[in-house]
Amino acid sequence: MPRRTCRARVAGMGLVAGLTLLAPAPLHAAPAPAGPQGGWPTPGQAATGNADDDPVAAKLLVYLRLLSASGTAEEYATFLTENPSWPLRPLMQARFQQALATEPDDAVAGALCSRLQLTDVHALQRCAHAAPRPAALDSWARVAWVNHADTQGETQAMLSTFGPVLTPQDHWLRFDRQERAGRIDAATRQVVMLDTIQQPVARARLAFRRNDPHAEDTLATLPPEQQADGALVLDRLRWLHHAQRLDEALALWHERGVETEKQQTPAVAAVFWRERDAMARDLLLAHRTDDALFMANDTADIGSATHYDALFLTGWIRLEYLHDADHALADFTPLAQAVPVITRSRGLYWAGRALWAQGRHAAAKAQWEQAAALANTFYGQMAIERLAGDRMNQLVAPNQAGQQIRRFLLREREPAPSVSDSVHFDTSDLARAAEILVAWGDRHHARDFILALDAQDTGPMKHVLAARMATRLGIPDAAVMVARLAGKDGLTLVHEGWPRVYSPPTSTLPADVELAVARQESGFDAGVVSPAHAVGLMQLLVPTAREVARKAGLNVNVSAASLTDPQLNMRLGAAYLSDIAQRMGGAVPYVAAAYNAGPHRTDGWLETLGNPARDTPQPDAMLDWIESIPFGETRNYVERVEENMAIYQATDPAAGHG
Length: 658
Prior knowledge:
Strand content: under 5%
CATH topology of the domain at 513-655: Lysozyme
Structural class: mainly alpha
Largest sheet: none
CATH architecture of the domain at 513-655: Orthogonal Bundle
Shape: globular
CATH class of the domain at 513-655: Mainly Alpha
Helix content: 55-70%
Distance between the termini: 31 Å
Radius of gyration: 28 Å
């Protein structure tokens, strides 16, 4: 869900889902795998048996105990040293530092303080009073000061123990991080620790960050060299844009913003790009196409992924607004050569559109044929639609898509791991640990080991083997996650990446849209809880789920705990989707946008961007509507839901072609 939208499943929308929609959905979960002959030991058997009989099982018991914060600092240090590839290492390191901070024995603490780099304030303080004092302790403290310790209590503790070793540069870097991250209260407290010459520019940055109407008065008091501070320039650009002072913001981009962006690191320049992207889209809405093109055409070093976004927006504006197919083709071509399948299919599709606009129809079809080979991607499916002509209109009539897309999916072949690849993978401690955990009924931690395996090995085979293991062990969310990572490496894993592990309830919604949403919302992790407290497969907020149940007359106990039941979660999520579909006229792109960004905001987009499902029910018009959505996360969400739905329709056994 977009962080800036704070999407909530808004209660009280007059849900009218029928009882057939809420009929129980049968669930299908893979059984626990069989262990070796005789079976894996149970946790109790492993705890009381000889560790030599099954060292991985014995090590797992230690691992699980340490994760629960039940170990000594010595145990944590030893485990971390001996098992560098085991998952959840940052959590284990945090547990080590917590135990070290409360270690009562000075000799023990002194021996442990230099084992691992420390970042925790209390662990650093403990080691400052231990003997021997680690030689690197002061440098660790400076790093922690710059990157952590933002609460008032942590700040005071660090200053009381390490204040003398902290430099003016440390203080500035700390402020810079806090302000850029939007930690305004912490950054405000930090200002008094800065050099007097740095404090005015810091206050100016905070004034713009707080949306202070007098921020420019504060800026005017600064000398020109301080007004050129990169973060200050970006803060002012955002402030002008937020105030809808587009002419002044555009002038500042011309005068200072573009050159300032080029002086930044790629990571910081990527933040400038996000502002350029938002500004370009607002300028398009204001019918200022040339200005929007200037903002989109970002030539700074903004990192490869962000660069592809900039190239796409530039090419799209040139083709769809300025009808400049020649320059648009040059923008789309690098995307068509990218490794990630989503990026590559996007580039191939739009390169085909540019070639078609040039009158080079055979060349355009050749691009679409290449994109269609990536039929598990949204733009691969759009290319299939182009090749199919009137036989397919996925965005407006989604139930037509399955048969056409299935033909191309059948052509895709996963790479076959060699025997040596499989043996290397299956005999690793991480793979054995995942097997044992599932036999113990602990799929939650088994997931971590599968993902650690996928991260540890190199080459495409790791994705194939990890996804297959996740599928075999009945951990579909891990398979989905691995498939997403595989896609970034140019590999397609349709069978493992789009599991049909739950049967959606009967409804009038387009076929398989519930599965499409669930895959995007949770990756089929039934127990996941978001930072906004959305729960389960369909990521429902508890108040909204209660309202859904009440409107439907469903006598069920709805709580955060009960929403982890996949059957209940999908029933209520499908009911909520049905209501949104009625409100939005049934068009899946609108339904997906509303589920992600909220119905009210989507209503606004239908006002400002138009309603092609009603006015121009053609795929090109709907595609431009999707690409015009101002929130990048919602654009991606809509495309992924459409993509998922088409794959599930194409592989649905009930449709007669699964």
